[in-house]
Structure formats: structure tokens, C-alpha cells
Give the backbone structure.
Amino acid sequence: MLTSPKKKDTPPRTIALITDFGLSDPYVGQIKGVLARKAPNCRVVDISHDVTPFNVAQAGFFLASSYEHFPKDAVILCVVDPGVGAARKIVCLKLDERILIAPDNGLLGLALKNAWAAEVQVFDLSAAMDAPRKISHTFHGRDVFAPLAASLALGGKPDEFGKEMHPDDLVTHEWSQPTVTPGRATGHVLHIDRFGNCVLNLEAGSLGIPSELHMTSPSRGELAYVLTYAAMPEGTPGLLEGSQGFLEIAVNQRSAAKKFGLSMGDAIELKWKA
């Protein structure tokens, strides 16, 4: 049984949502309907429903850059699930009191890598699939993930719904594991925002303060290392620590993606004077 009775002294939690469902179909509304029915006193916040379809890396970035801005006991549900109906696990990452729920397809890798929580636990909650109710083969977001999120938001504990697993057993991908060595870094483009800024999977500060910085692959070009967009002359490219906690390639008042021909998922290489 998924629904745990809410403790009288437990205030309603916030439930946050990330999906690739968009808003032109009824999918997000149906998920919110389940949450409203099962956890009517919980606030539901949309982080984004415009993840590029099936783009687990972009969703992982949205999750890793967002969860810390929510209350310490928030439940954050991320459903970008190309393997829905297959044998992938349903997992949650518990960072202190925050609970991040996702399919085990690499979505939690970046949040886990960058976690600064005092207590980190991972649970396999796949037993939620065994609940005695009708479950669509193609919409686990509504029929499995949403009821699970509601139950946890009502005070349920992850170990009531599944077994703890070792964090190393989570599925991970190359895009959540950049490499930084003296004078060289390799990583991936996680996201391109509406301004054309290319967010990398390199944490802010991970390069120190590099000088004579260049991107050498997949395109080539000199990058100024700056603190703000305005520190670059208009049309000049640079690398800076973005507001989401990751380094990003940007061009002042231009699209860095267009200038360098970059797309989400591209592998990049940076070199500088060590």
C-alpha cells in the first residue's frame, strides 16, 4: 500500500515536478490530479515540463541545479523515462530530508555527484509497481511515480516502500562524470538555454581561475574567463560560472551555441595554461 497516513505534527511538504511531457497534452494535468487527490494539502511546484523529449542529461541538470532551492523536506519528482515499461528500477535519492524520485536511467547521477548533504541514501522503490491497482504500461508517471511522491510527501519513509541500495549501483552516464586535470577538462553540454548559453557538466570553480583558456573540441576558439556576461565585449565568447552552479560557455548578447555550432550532448574539451 502506497499511502502513508500523514502525521498530525508534520506540515504539508512541497512536491516539485520535472518532466518532458510539455503542456499541450493532458499528461501533466493528470499527474497533478493524482497529487491533488492523494495529497491535497501539499503545494505542487513546476520546475519544468519542457525538457527535450527523452533527454535524460538535460533533466538531470534541471534536477541537480534546482533541488537545493526547495524546502529541506521537499519531494522532487523527475519523470523523463524513455525506458517506461522496461526493466529499469524506480529509485529515490535522499539528501538529508529532501527526496528526489526518478527512474534509474542516470537521472540522479549529477545530483548525487554534486551533493553536499550530510546524509545521502539511495533506495530502490520498484516495489511500488506491485501495488494492487491498474497501472498503464506507458504512463508510470501518473500511475506509479505520482502516488509514490504523494505517499512520501505525506510523511512516508523511503524504507517503507523499498530497500536501501548502494549509491554506486545507480545507473550513471558519461555526462555526469567530467574529467578535470591540470590544464585540461573534458565534459558535455547539458543544456542550451533560450539565450544560447551552453551549460556544461563542470561545476562552478572546478577549473580554478584559468588563463589562456581555449575550447579545442568539438569547435575551436579562445574563451575569456569572466565573472559576468557584461565583462565580455559584445559578441565576445567566454566561460563563466552560471547561476545554476555549473560553468557555461556564453557570448555577450549572442548565442554561443550558434557561434560554436554546439548542441546538447556534445562532448567538449577545454585547455588552459596550468
